[in-house]
Amino acid sequence: QPADPAAPAPAAAPMAGLHAKVFAGDPLAANFAPVGSLDAPGKNPSAPHLRIDFDDFGAGVRELRLANHYESVKNDANVLVQTAVEHNGVRLVPFAAQWLSVNGQKVFLTRDAAGPVWRQIATDKPGQFEAIILDGAETPIARVERAYVIRPNSHVVQLAQRVFNLSPAPITISLVTYGPADLPQERGGYGGDKRKVRFGYLRNAGQDPSRKHPIANEFITPHATALGGSENGLYEPVLPQWPNEVSNENGFELTWAGMTNRYFSVAATPWFEGDAPVPMSLAKYALVDRVMIGNAVSFQDPAGGAARTKVTRVNASDMTTPEMALRLASASETLAPGASTDLGLAIYAGPLSKPQIKREPVADAANLESLVVFNFGGMCGPCTFPFITSTLHSLLLFFHDYLTRDWALAIALLVVCVRTILHPLTRWSQIKMQRFAKQMQAMGPKQKVIQERYGADRQKLQQEMAKLWREEGVSPLGMVGCLPMFLVTPVWIALYAMLYFSVELRHEPAFYGVVQKVIPNFPNFMGWFLSDLSEPDRFFRFGSSVNIPMIGEVDSINILPFILGAVFFVHQKYLTPPSATQLTPEQEMQQKMIKWMSVIMFPVFMYGAPAGLSIYFIVNSTLAIFENKWIKAHAEKHGLLDVEKSKSAKKKEGFFAKLQRAAEERARMVEQARKQSQQKKR
Prior knowledge:
The protein is an alpha+beta fold. 33% of the residues lie in helices and 25% in strands. It is built from 15 helices and 28 strands. The longest helix is centred in the middle third of the chain and has 48 residues, at 407-454.
């Protein structure tokens, strides 16, 4: 068993021979009845949104499946978000009670070698269990009750837990229970492992006097990071997660602990009925650990010489079987004879959907909306701003719900909307870059003469070049025409991430499912085509899959990436401005190679991408082609690219022109101050 979490010293004397009662042969201790339902949506509106199958190991969750979500578009199996796993005799069971500490003595509540230690309270009470703690004389000392209560039309489960003192003396107890375990990773692997460990918390009383507003800004931990660093492939079986250095330093108080994958989440949060508690926190739970299952390896610690145990990963490529779980330990509490304590939780198990979470009072009060994060992390993480992704997601929902009723068309409409909003910036930027390129081309012969004349005198060369630029009316800041393109990059990154993580697109067909209506029953040829915007387009589906370097797992021929490559090639033709200087044959060849490599490699990287993202790129690049063509025609029609005209014309300054003039003035003042400083030194 993993190491004990730290706990205060017991207040009462130890008791001899404490153990859990074994219910060998008891019919109520085997084949626990499930709770919940997997009724198809629409058949029973009042049915719960999930079903739980139980395990006699700690009265935990053997399987938790969602009623309204399926593994594939064929709706053949419900989505599995929690499952128990066993490896080399060691079990990891979500939400199983692991042990009860009584006066400092650990009494395991998982399973005894002689039989189960939990039983269902009655045949007509599924989901309600009890365990009895006995002393060496077989006298009852404590009873632990657990009840999983599922409510209609809800993804929230009440896990009622209560510990009773059955002894004639006070006892000090602490309950240790597993929380959520790994959720399965999506097949295919595009975008990498998107599973995360999350914590919600209350800020300190000075920052949040009401103690009602949990947030989750600080802790978004990727799965690999939560596993912790390894030494020669060896991991710590238990790693503390909460409290941690950041939470201690800032006085944060734990509200919820959860795990997510791309589309779903399971989180432990406070349970309440009526008004939300104050503070809105898991006040009775003091510690949260990460527990990992794997191949145990024992060795002598070189530092202290003591025997230690670490674990190796069972199968790092297996993303469907959990390998770690969170474990919660309650703070030590002394119970008087006949007294009890409530250690209940709520479990949210459902989609990462803000509208769905807001409909659940318990989840909404805990701000489980914070679980929804449209962010790939890594290098793009810091520039994927939540306020942009949230705005784009709200627009996508609006376009679908009120205008198109089709997600592919909603994506296209969203791209049109974004490009329209950014058009003034795009137009200014492209005209600026094209004009600068033409100005540089026009100055090319004069620059060459100056280089030939003053090539040996570097200082004189710079002075003459600067003079030429002033005479020709060319500013070095003309090169900043590309700057606005970089400034809007976070918008496109946010749109990309939002589409990838939007659970609303999962298993949704494109263009009203017209392909599936024409070709029903999902044959391999075109039957799966555009049937799921969260998966590749699958023009032709194979019977099996293969792993291809740089692409990953491939189980179909996808045509959208090839269409994207063709569109991207045309897009580059219109987007690439003319060269500012005369290129050598070698430079021209390099440019052509870069262009073709980008046209080829981009579809390769996008081959396993979701169809929704491919549609986004195709629509965006197609619109960009027409936009760039129009901008060029508009600029030529109005003489905006005429070098001589632009030198002599007095134009009304726009916003960006004012910025450029201010920057030039600032640069002139700095240069003047530098010269004055040099003169004083002389």
